[in-house]
Amino acid sequence: AVTVDSRTKPGMAVANEQMTGHAADQTSQAKIVSQQWDYIVVQDNQGNFAGSSGSVPSWCVNANTTLYGQIKANDSCTRIVYFAGWGPAGGTSGSDNTVSCINRIHNNSIVLNNAVADEIVSPIGKAWITSMSQLPGENLYSSDNQHPSMEGVYLTAATILTTIFKTDLTNVNYSGG
After folding, report:
1. Are strands 120-122 and 39-42 parallel, antiparallel or unpaired?
2. Distance between CA atoms of 124 and 102, rounded to whole angstroms?
3. What are phi and psi of 84, to 5 degrees?
4. What helix, strand, coil percent values describe the chain, rounded to 5?
5. End-to-end CA distance of the chain, in Å?
6. How far apart are CA 104 and CA 57, in angstroms?
């Protein structure tokens, strides 16, 4: 049996100046200590990782280090899966593009993982790049060109599932919903 729980508040990050981030959020903390988890997927604000390749803001690393410590204090065997997602369609500036932005996010997620601990990075953005290349008719973005469409949500979930369970999902029949 698989038990899944989440704390997904719009705009929430691990550290957040506009609202309490996961590292200090009481609901997130209660979920962490509610049981011994095999895996916890940590999705930070992908904008924190879209800057220069090889550079993650120190406040972001500090908040993720705090969250890591909280998760490991509950169960030292819990594996953290860092969400290396996508960036906005077109990238973050006029001279950027989608693929280079996603590659920076992926690389900086690895930088964070190496700075905090040797855990797992789920290559969600890399899966998006592959999908955009191999299936250009599928739009992974919603109308705001930042958030995922249903296809983007499915690909993201499939990538996380594959990361954790090491299973091939190519023959899964899914019709949306």
Report:
1. unpaired
2. 9
3. -95, 85
4. 40, 10, 50
5. 22
6. 13
Structure tokens at 11: 């705009």
Determine how many CB atoms are found less than 10 A away from the CB of residue 98: 20
CA dihedral 166, 115, 36, 34 (to 10 degrees): -120
Could you tell me if 133 and 118 are in contact, meaning their C-beta atoms sit under 8 angstroms apart?
no
pLDDT in tens, the chain (177 residues): 889 999 988 888 998 766 688 999 999 999 999 999 999 999 999 999 999 999 999 999 999 999 999 999 999 999 999 999 999 999 998 889 999 999 999 999 999 999 998 999 999 999 999 999 999 999 999 999 999 999 999 999 999 999 999 988 888 777 666
Answer for the pair 69, 37: CB distance below 8 angstroms, yes or no: no
Residues composing the chain: 177
Beta bridge partners of 122: 83
Kindly provide the residue ranges of all beta strands, DSSP E only, lying in the chain, ordered along the sequence.
39-42, 79-83, 120-122
Which amino acid is present at 20? T
